[in-house]
């Protein structure tokens, strides 16, 4: 999975944005309210095909919970995804496009068919659909409908028989979105650790411990008990919620960056809670993931220090990296400057320009 271009129309605060020539690592910088989080979320949604991410979490539900929205406001949430509530969002990736629509009338034959095949389906005045179509030829089409039933979000996928194989290649997609809410989701963290050991074996656990011991030599082991990850010391053990935020962030980063290959990783402000020495370690994990596991990575950050670490590590390992400096959302249209890796290094180090903006 790799994106060369992403174009967003009418999604949240963005009326129009186009980022092309995407690199191995893509960093979004700029002042608040310039669309960094919205673009990360759009990339996460399309990389999941609007189905499930790598930890089998429904992508749209993940965005709802990340935003702090409540299920009781589901219909309002669907409206608020639109730019100024005007038109349905469309997110294009290379030749594939995704349209998000809110339907006012759910009494069509289409919904009657869902009702017959899914007895738990409950009709509502509004629902949201994700329509997936080939951007140029309309050769294939899929529609996923999401609604609230019995205070839960359910999702079903409808598609023609000729597209069945396309959507059943992977039950879940190789994508993960890491943000503050992800770090505090204890079950997800434990699930990733167990899955990582299943996939990579004992060696990966040794590698994780070796990385942690570079800064915390007193850590002896890692394990999972009652769906919570524990750090084990010589005389005691402690669950992940009780450890310092820096250790927690760095541990989760090290796991996430090595669990996928040929996937998409999205990080929202990963520098939070991290001392510069841990930021440097985090940066090395990210670059190694792009270099060794061929993951494409998208990062939003406000830290010039963290940006510097990423740039230098990417140069050292010869990984392509682009810095997108978001300048403004003028009437909803994203205005930005693009720095390629070496240009960004010169801008930061030699000229002294703070490419984050003011």
Description:
With 358 residues, this protein is an alpha+beta fold. It has one domain (5-179, 264-349): 3-Layer(aba) Sandwich (Rossmann fold), CATH 3.40.50.300. The protein has twelve helices and 16 strands. The strands form three sheets. The protein has a seven-stranded antiparallel β-sheet with strand order 2-1-4-5-6-7-8, covered by helices on one side. Strands 9-13-14-3-15-16 form a six-stranded mixed β-sheet, sandwiched between helices. It has a three-stranded antiparallel β-sheet with strand order 10-11-12. Helix 7 (186-200) crosses helix 8 (202-213), helix 10 (276-292) runs parallel beside helix 11 (304-316) and helix 11 crosses helix 12. The longest helix is centred in the C-terminal third of the chain and has 17 residues, at 276-292. The chain is globular. The chain starts with a strand and ends in a 9-residue tail after the last helix.
Write the layout of secondary structure elements.
Layout: E1 5-11, E2 14-20, E3 25-30, H1 36-47, H2 59-67, H3 74-80, E4 90-93, E5 96-103, H4 109-117, E6 127-134, E7 141-149, E8 152-159, H5 164-167, E9 175-178, H6 180-183, H7 186-200, H8 202-213, E10 221-225, E11 228-232, E12 237-239, H9 245-259, E13 264-268, H10 276-292, E14 296-300, H11 304-316, E15 321-330, E16 333-340, H12 341-349
Parallel strand pairs: 3-14, 3-15, 9-13, 13-14
Antiparallel strand pairs: 1-2, 1-4, 4-5, 5-6, 6-7, 7-8, 10-11, 11-12, 15-16
Helix pairs in contact: 7-8, 7-9, 9-10, 10-11, 11-12
């Amino acid at each position: 999975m790799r994106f060369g271009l992403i174009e967003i129309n009418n999604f949240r605060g963005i009326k129009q944005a186009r980022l092309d020539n995407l690199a191995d690592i893509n960093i979004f910088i700029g002042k608040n309210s310039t669309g960094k989080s919205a673009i990360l979320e759009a990339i996460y949604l399309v990389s999941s095909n609007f189905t499930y991410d790598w930890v089998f979490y429904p992508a749209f539900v993940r965005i709802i919970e990340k935003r702090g929205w409540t299920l009781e406001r589901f219909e309002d949430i669907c409206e608020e995804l639109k730019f100024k509530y005007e038109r349905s969002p469309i997110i294009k990736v290379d030749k594939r496009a995704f349209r998000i629509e809110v339907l006012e009338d759910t009494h069509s034959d289409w919904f009657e068919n869902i009702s017959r095949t899914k007895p738990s389906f409950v009709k509502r005045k509004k629902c949201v659909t994700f329509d997936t179509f080939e951007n140029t030829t309309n050769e294939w089409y899929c529609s996923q409908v999401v609604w609230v039933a019995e205070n839960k979000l359910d999702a079903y996928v409808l598609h023609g028989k000729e597209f069945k194989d396309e959507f059943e290649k992977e039950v879940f997609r190789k994508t993960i979105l890491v943000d503050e809410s992800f770090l505090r989701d204890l079950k997800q963290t434990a699930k990733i650790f167990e899955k990582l050991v299943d996939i990579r074996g004992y060696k990966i656990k040794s590698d994780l411990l070796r990385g942690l011991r570079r800064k915390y030599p007193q850590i002896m082991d890692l394990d999972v008990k009652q769906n919570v990850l524990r750090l084990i010391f010589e005389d005691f053990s402690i669950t992940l919620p009780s450890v310092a935020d820096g250790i927690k962030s760095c541990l989760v980063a090290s796991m996430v960056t090595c669990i996928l290959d040929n996937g998409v990783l999205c990080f929202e402000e990963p520098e939070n809670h991290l001392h510069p020495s841990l930021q440097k370690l985090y940066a090395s994990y990210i670059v190694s993931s792009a270099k060794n596991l061929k993951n494409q990575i998208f990062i939003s950050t406000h830290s010039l220090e963290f940006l510097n670490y990423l740039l230098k590590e990417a140069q050292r390992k010869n990984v392509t990296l682009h810095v997108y400096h978001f300048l403004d959302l003028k009437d909803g249209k994203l205005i930005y400057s693009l720095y390629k890796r070496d240009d960004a290094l010169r801008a930061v180090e030699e000229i002294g320009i703070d490419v984050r903006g003011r």
